[in-house]
């Protein structure tokens, strides 16, 4: 299964088969997580399908600190003029209670409209990415500690004892980023292929 790099737009939709309703999550660039989003007013919502992709998956981080693996099967909602890819939860954190779900979705007459719903990760050989020198990683991590920055994965302050820095210059808790990279090939902040350097011994 291909790995999703970036979704089109900032929102994704989940389907609730028992209720036959949908709910929407929105990406927050400032916080680097997905949180619940409302569909306001009474927009026209139509379901479409694209044939430009095969089934693809990605790990996302939620507003409550949990992570989950989701997959997309090439279907999407057109909410007024906004394209919202439809995804499903595969593994990981359970979904928090949802009150903002909605129905009234109809199938498109022609159903298939070929739209690029997401871009795919590029398979970059590990040996093509060189680790940061220890001294550079130390400077970046030291600055992050002094500025009370938080690890974007676990949302806890960067510790001088456990900091690690990616080749794209982002600072993380060492154990957290190691766990992330066990199942992902890219940085959780910028989605660039990366490896890490532990900033402190």
TrEMBL record:
Secretion signal span: none
Residue ranges that the Swiss-Prot or TrEMBL entry lists as coiled coil: none
Full protein name: RING-type domain-containing protein
RING-type domain location: 150-191
Matching Gene3D superfamilies: Zinc/RING finger domain, C3HC4 (zinc finger) (3.30.40.10)
InterPro entries: Znf_RING, Znf_RING/FYVE/PHD
Pfam families (alphabetical): zf-RING_2
């Amino acid at each position: 299964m291909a790995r999703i790099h970036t979704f089109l737009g900032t929102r994704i939709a989940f389907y609730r088969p028992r209720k036959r309703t949908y709910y929407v999550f929105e990406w927050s660039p400032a916080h680097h997580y997905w949180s619940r989003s409302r569909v306001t007013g009474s927009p026209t919502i139509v379901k479409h399908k694209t044939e430009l992709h095969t089934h693809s998956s990605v790990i996302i981080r939620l507003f409550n600190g949990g992570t989950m693996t989701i997959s997309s099967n090439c279907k999407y909602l057109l909410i007024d003029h906004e394209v919202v890819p439809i995804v499903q939860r595969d593994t990981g954190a359970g979904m928090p209670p949802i009150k903002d779900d909605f129905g009234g979705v109809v199938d498109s007459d022609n159903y298939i409209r070929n739209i690029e719903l997401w871009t795919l990760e590029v398979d970059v050989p590990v040996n093509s990415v060189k680790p940061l020198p220890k001294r550079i990683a130390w400077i970046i991590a030291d600055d992050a500690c002094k500025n009370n920055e938080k690890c974007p994965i676990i949302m806890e302050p960067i510790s001088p004892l456990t900091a690690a820095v990616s080749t794209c210059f982002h600072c993380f808790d060492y154990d957290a980023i190691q766990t992330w990279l066990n199942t992902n090939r890219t940085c959780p902040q910028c989605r660039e292929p990366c490896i890490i350097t532990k900033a402190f011994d």
